[in-house]
Automatic annotation (TrEMBL):
GO biological process, one term: pyridine nucleotide biosynthetic process
Domain of life of the native organism: Eukaryota
This protein's pathway: Cofactor biosynthesis; nicotinate biosynthesis; nicotinate from nicotinamide: step 1/1
Enzyme Commission (EC) number: 3.5.1.19
Family from the record: Belongs to the isochorismatase family.
Coiled-coil regions, chain positions: none
Protein name stated in the entry: nicotinamidase
Gene Ontology MF terms in the entry: metal ion binding; nicotinamidase activity
CDD domains: nicotinamidase
Class in the EC hierarchy, top level: hydrolase
Length: 406
């Protein structure tokens, strides 16, 4: 794993110097040895166990009731730093209910018309942006029996409940976001506030809300672990796809009896260590490589910024002098070109349709001129690059840095 050896060599000099080691120790090794773990118990609600969306009636014929015993055992035996219970929690006029199909206009591109629509079909609703929606039976209506957590599920003290799909116009399979990625649920903020590093996910259904939540956790940057024997799903192929997506993105899929020693930092999975290292590298590329170009125009604010950075990082003043003047006179400059992608220029997130009415196309000429005339030490192009969920439905947000020089 040669990549791993260079992950903390930010300045690429082939050595891990003192600053780099301090960073590696504080942000990587400490997390691996003493992770902060949260358990997300996803949608163990009556409607999914034995109600209108009873998963035993779907193709995989799995029984949602069977997650309760292993989840309760986990809650009894493992000391998580936080436990969250999510609830699918829809108003009665919710967009995902097939019996509400006549309440909204269908977009002309929809291949399914309201009069022919069957449960589990996908239609396209009209709107500012046409929106794909899978049609489900009426389920988890707010304050109904179907929306209650199953009575046998253990609810721990200090449990935090997170509600999904509460807006009539928006559905959500992920406990982090609505499906259009416009509104965050309260979960992301609470995980941040509790300084959680590791997110464990279980519940119903593996290939829908559990999977979407796990993939979002990974994309946001958490070390993410799906507890397979504490999940049941709807379709075997979709379950397999979900599992593969998690594994390909440095998540873990484990059994519940492996969780305790992972939470205690005794069982340390290499894929989770690598995931954290990649996250740290992605976050630091920007701050560690910002320098001014040819060094003839030397901006005081940038000199001051550098001095403050060095002061914060080092106690030795001779080191500061050595690293400050030289950098100001001979900076190493990188250009980050952020997300100049079709969707933002003229596609689904076309800037010209937002309130500022600006035209994304107009950045291309000046950026090209920069690239032609300025000799940057490195050029990075960032691409917003989302993993695909099934059937063309995007679940994840966030930008990933792609270092084209490697
Ligand atoms: Zn729902």
């Amino acid at each position: 794993m040669a990549e791993k050896n260079t992950l903390f060599d930010w300045n690429q000099d082939g050595l891990i110097d003192r600053e780099e080691f301090a960073f590696c120790w504080n942000r990587w090794i400490k997390v691996i040895v003493r992770p902060k773990s949260a358990l997300l118990v996803i949608n163990v609600q009556n409607d999914f166990v034995s109600g209108t969306l009873n998963m035993s009636q779907r193709s995989a014929k799995q029984n949602g009731l069977q997650v309760i015993e292993p989840i309760n055992k986990l809650l009894d035996t493992v000391n998580f730093n936080a436990v969250f219970y999510s609830l699918d929690w829809h108003p009665s006029n919710h967009i995902s209910f097939i019996d509400n199909i006549k309440l909204r206009k269908i977009h002309y591109t929809s291949t399914v018309q309201p009069e022919d629509a069957q449960t589990y079909d996908t239609v396209v609703f009209d709107g500012d942006t046409p929106m794909k929606q899978k049609l489900w039976p009426r389920h988890c209506v707010q304050d109904s029996w179907g929306a209650e957590l199953h009575k046998d599920l253990k609810i721990v003290d200090n449990a935090i409940k997170v509600y999904m799909g509460t807006d009539p116009e928006e559905d959500s399979y992920s406990v982090f976001w609505d499906s259009k990625k416009l509104k965050r649920t309260s979960l992301a903020k609470q995980l941040e506030a509790k300084k959680v590093t590791d997110v464990y996910v279980c519940g119903l259904a593996y290939d829908v809300c559990v999977g979407a939540s796990a993939i979002d956790a990974i994309t946001i940057g958490y070390r993410t672990i799906l507890i397979e024997d504490c999940c049941r799903g709807m379709d075997l192929d979709d379950i397999e796809r979900t599992r593969n997506t998690i594994l390909e993105n440095y998540g873990s899929c484990v059994q519940s009896d492996e969780v305790k020693s992972m939470v205690e930092g005794k069982d340390r999975r290499p894929e989770l260590g690598l995931k954290l290292a990649l996250e740290l590298k992605a976050k630091c590329i920007g701050s560690l490589y910002v320098r001014v170009i040819e060094s003839k125009d030397r901006r005081p604010e940038l000199g001051l910024k550098l001095a403050l950075e060095l002061k914060a990082k080092s106690k030795s003043s001779s080191m500061i002098e050595d690293r400050w003047i030289k950098v100001i006179v001979r900076p190493n400059s990188a250009l980050l070109v952020i997300n100049v992608q079709n969707d933002f220029v003229s596609g689904t997130l076309n800037l010209s349709q937002r309130s500022a009415k600006q035209n994304g196309l107009q950045v291309i000429e000046p950026i090209n001129k920069l690239l032609d005339t300025v000799n940057f030490n490195a050029v990075f192009y960032a691409l917003d690059w989302h993993p695909m969920w099934y059937k063309g439905h995007y679940t994840s947000f966030g930008a990933t840095w792609y270092d084209l020089t490697q």
